[in-house]
Each structure stands twice: as structure tokens, then as C-alpha cells.
Amino acid sequence: MEIEIFLESGEDGLAREQVERIDARIRQWHAEGAELRYDKKCFGSLTAMETGKRYRVDLAQVDPVRAIRELHAHLYRHGLRVFAHFLP
């Protein structure tokens, strides 16, 4: 299953260093989910459509609800709204 993640920061927008931090947090979330371990379901690919705003993630066999909760845990401090669009 693939999801497309949209990040919304509000009217103020984000400074360049905030965008870089957010991008790093998303990549960290993906790396943790894609880590290969015995008897663990792993993420597939991560594609940055617009760095800091839009990403496409192949969840493979990972539970999508759990994956989105973990993503929220990585991003909630930045004051972002996270929208996930499930793709067929």
C-alpha cells in the first residue's frame, strides 16, 4: 500500500532550516521503518515530491495506522498538520 503525505504549516510558512529539520525527521521515520530485521515488516521506498511538503511512501506490508502514528510522533513538535492520502 502506498500513501502520499502532505504537510501543512499554516499561513506563516516555514524557514529553510525548519524545512531541512522536517525533511530529516521524515527520512529518519522512514529509515526506522525500512530497517531490515528478522520477522519484521518493513517499509518500501520513500520519494520526496516536494521537500518539506509532500512525500510518497510505499508501506509494503506495514500497518498503515501504526505507521502514521509513528510519523505523527516524529513531527508533532513542529506544529504541522499531516494529511495522508491512501493510494491504490
Itemize the secondary structure elements and their pairings.
Elements: E1 2-8, H1 16-34, E2 46-50, E3 54-58, H2 64-75, E4 81-87
Helix pairs in contact: 1-2
Structural features, described:
With 88 residues, the chain is α+β, with helices and mostly antiparallel strands. 35% of the residues lie in helices and 27% in strands. It has helices spanning 16-34, 64-75; strands at 2-8, 46-50, 54-58, 81-87. A four-stranded antiparallel sheet has the order 2-3-1-4, covered by helices on one side. Strand 2 (46-50) and strand 3 form a beta hairpin. The longest helix has 19 residues, at 16-34. It is globular. The protein starts with a strand and ends with a strand.
